[in-house]
Amino acid sequence: MSLENPATGARNSFRFDRRKPAASKDSQTSEQPPLPPAWPHARRNRRSPSRRTAACASPRSLPLRNRQPGGAAPPRWDIPLLLCVLALLTACSSRKSESPKANASYTSVAAWRNIEDLPRAIAQFETVFWEPADTDSLRLLIRSTDIVKNRTVMEIGTGTGLISLCCAQYGAKQIVATDINSNAVTCANFNAAWLNLNRRIETRLVSEDKSGAFEVIGDNERFDFIISNPPWVDQKVKNLAEYALYDPGWHLLTTLMDGLPAHLNPGGRCLLAYGSVSGVKAVIREAEKRGFQCVIKDDRNLDDLEEEFLPGMLLEVIVPAEKIQATLPPSVAP
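Request: output the structure for the sequence above.
Response:
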């Protein structure tokens, strides 16, 4: 291609080669040619505003078709929607962190235990007692009848939570499970979440300074069932784990008996599982002192058994109705 210089009449020839590299940045002019009046705020080669820029734009910078009369910006629905999504994600993240697998504090599993009453194995934490044969007859009663269905239950000395889990599995409405061992409370919480029964099981930690059977139960709290597989040997405790084995001076048993009238609903029942002859005799003795009745729900003769035996023996302590009614508030008592 050639052009003629009007001043000299000379012709200059050149070829446009699109393979030729673009001029360097230094060779480009810093000034841009003026733009048409219709685009006073535009720049050459300027990209369209980003979403973030548009979201922060003032009402006057919005296109006329998106503005309301008076110059006000239209209602913004994206920010409330974003906040709702963030709140939902936060809730899901928080719930996920409470999952037994995701919580790093659950690191003391000593063993996994299979039991026929539950759909999967449960965890036994360190220092937490485990002997399911103690409660064979009690668990059989729970799973083969509707005894706890739609009932409120308190378990004293929950351990791994086995009895409370069985009650929840077979229809109990609400369970309060207590223990003096913090590892046991953590273990019961873990297993309840593991079996997706934690919405109906509440655990409470008992203090060593105040270790009575109902120390963490409110004065007005009552239950349809009070259940326990308590320690059955009268001996001093040397460490936390031994609270599952020994009941010094029968303190737990006596406080349990004392609190039954005030914490059983009218028609409520108390079921205990013991695996020692002296323990069963202590229950009978303490029940008779208070005018209660102790019924042994077992075909075995107590005199024919060794001091400690398995499976455990199921006992029912029957509290006379008038003793329960005497503890009811005047507005509730019949």
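The longest strand covers residues 264-276.
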